[in-house]
Fold this sequence. Notes:
Elements lengths: L2 H14 L6 E2 H12 L4 H11 L8 E2 L10 H10 L4 E2 L2 E2 L1 H4 L5
Parallel strand pairs: 1-2
Antiparallel strand pairs: 3-4
Amino acid sequence: MTPQEYVEEVLALVESIPEGRVMSYGAIADALAERSGRNSPRQIGRIMALHGGGVPWHRVCNGGGRLPPGHEQEARARLLSEGVPMRGERVLIGEAGWMPR
Length: 101
């Protein structure tokens, strides 16, 4: 898989996250690892920072439920409007986490 194909796979996966659910950077990396040969949550974060504006970026957080740096307020408002369970500023990953089949 080329780097551009990987970017497209990441964005397609983020696009498929259902409303009211979230995935962590690590979960996205894990979901694509077998097909792509890559498994780096940091790389997912970089892809989201550079190319994620056209997908539901607010549905991606870190493994501890922290929201995208610099976009916390907007992400929190969007997630709450979708009914995502939160405790303070963190998503309750155990309740809202999602993985594709």
